[in-house]
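worker-03 picked up job from queue 'complexes'. Input manifest follows; two sequence lines, order preserved.
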Amino acid sequence: MEKKTPILEMKGITKRFPNVVANEQVDLELYPGEVLALLGENGAGKSCLMNVLAGLYRADEGEIFIQGKRVEINSPRDAMLLGIGMVHQNFMLVDTMTVAENIILGLSDLPFVPDMGTVSKRIRELSERYNLQVDPESHIWQLSVGEQQRVEILKLIYRGAEILILDEPTAVLTPQESKQLNRIIHQMTREGKSAIFITHKMEEVIAFSDWVRVLHKGRLVTVKKTSQTNPQELARLMVGRDVLFRLEKKDRNLGGVALELKDVQAVDDKGLPALNGISLIIRSGEILGIAGVAGNGQKQLVEVLTGLRKTTGGKIRIFGEEKSNKSPLEIINTGVSHIPADRIARGIAGDMSVANNLAMKCYRKPPLAKKGILHPKRILDLANRMIELFHIHTPTPHTHAKFLSGGNIQKTILAREIDACRGLLIAAYPSRGLDVGATEFVRNQMIAQSESGTAILLISEDLEELLTVADKIAVLFEGHIMGIFRSNEADTERLGMMMTGMKEGIGELRD
Amino acid sequence: MIQLVASLLAITLRAGTSLMYATIGEIYTERSGILNLGIEGMMLMSAVTSFATVYYTGNLFLSILVAMLVGGTLASLHAFLSVTMRANQVVSGLSITLFGSGMASFLGQRLGPESNSGYLVGLVGSKFEPIAIPVFSLMPIFGAVFNQDILTYIVYVLLPVSWFYLYKTRDGLNLRSVGENPQTADAMGIDVGKVRYMYTIFGGMLVGIGGAHLSLSYAPGWTENITGGRGWIVIALVIFSMWNPARAIWGAILFGGINAVQFRLQASGTTIPASYLNMLPYLATVFVLVVLTWWEALSKRIGAPSALAKSYMREEK
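worker-03 finished. Artifact:
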């Protein structure tokens, strides 16, 4: 095995950003027909290293070899010509264009007037061969996240990529879709292609990869053959300490009704029905999980609860008071906190300091403000306290929030929202994209909050998270609640089926 | 009656030509994600320089080249500021308009024999004359369509060609992707900066022709503020046409048409003060724009390129 020439070799890659060293002397080897898992916490430098390979970043030091030959990769075009293709974490797709248009975008050997008929035909052939069903003529915005990912993979295959880089591909998939992705990747490696797979989920490393490389704080910690390691060992290497996989949950006494939804309806941005009569009750001290594939009404549900979207019917009661269609400020004032799904857009103001971001929910009142004048010293004190309490890694409290890693941005939001919370917390995908350490922290914080009497609505795509954190799980599909279970009575398989619209037991599609 | 409609149509097309050039030009620019608010200044500058070229050389062809050069140069300044320097595009565009308007009137005052009045009216030299296309130009009503100057004929072709280019060709696809999602375009191997430079300059050249049409055909000669704010109307017409070059014709016809109607009304000796009539085309454009965007917003079909007026750099959060 070791004697084979690696199809790809990276030697001593160092990449610096202002104030941060993202990669330091990282080596990497990839063999034909194999899958390499790149494991590491948020901010460990996995995506950065792969962006260097894909031509989006330029390394400050280091060399790259393809099939033993030294190469220069200065742009994505160079990478593409060398057969390197990357599926980015945030998909690189133009929403307003069709699947076919996205796939041929930027191709240099395309005729001036492309024959879209031939292109579509070729795409259909490929999607059949690799079992990547998608209609070449539909527009990207019409597709689910899973379908968009298929487009991304098709795009690489269409371009004849030999080395596929997948940046946290399963973060947005249902368990069934993840299994399918695993099959697709292995079909491609059987044909001699190779793949690098970024993740921080241990189960996936074990299920998907041949080799695993662990990064910690920008450095390569270890290289292991996947068959010779186990999740516990990997987790320890990745975080640098032991990680609890099971969370301890004490029995709690539930209080009164904190949130009640009665037949709530709402429409999406296109005016189409998104919530079709949602009825729910959450009591104080209870965590209700919402399971479902993204795009089935989660976004609208969160928005109507936080005052960001108007309902078109039904009633929302918070602590017994009618709160449908109130302004976000009114809802905040009743003690509702919100951890938004889109951290960057709705969770932080990227160009403001971490301290100001932390103060953003309580700056209106004393002690932070007096007669409308802010008190910078007290804001700084508050920020320093929270930074310490929530282990937010930031160079200084004055650093612009956008320069923090995803996990630390999420901790900043969490700190602010928990601090301001007075009884009801709406948390949308709170641990999405976070590493094991940060995930553990976020989950424990939520459990601690519920133990102190807070009602929590937890929206997540991670069934494991729902099963461990939530007390009850409601499955959302096309704006309906398909069913509500106690989390100790539910299982992954059954939830997965309902998430795709199948009624339990019957095994057939709804409508 | 037929005669009235025919003459309205003739004026509409003549008034609409410069708008169509500038609108198509700005559509190319905005499709690449660059908002150029310098159109008014660029049109004035190219109007005065192209007129000066004809005035001194009598060469119409050369004057169009000069107009394109001037439009393209000012646009490349905007491209430099907004792409390379990553300046605020609104500020950069506005300063080009301020510079262009001032410079154009400064140059205009120095044109002509011993001119010190600041106004040089009437063209001493050649201008673009209507060329009647045999047979077609004799059609009732629509004959006017085929009795226009060469620049108008070219724009007839430019409209569908631009539509085809934008939606059916490889380069058009790449252009649209840069305006919609520069990160994706970059990752797909498209040189975002180059595309933005290219179409900002190309758009500027078309805007330049639009300016030249004003001073060489529509209102031959140079007068202060010959554009009458058309550069701003173009910004509205781009939105009106939903960034689709084929629809640019409707906006131009709207503005040009109402202009034609109000001219007619003035000529007919109505009691409505001329100032109010002069306002009509502008008011109508604003009105239609507001109604349209409100309607489109309701149906969520606003076609603005998603990355319009946003600068892009790799390795930046």
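worker-03 released lock.
The longest helix of chain A spans residues 175-190.
Residues 350-420 of chain A form one domain.
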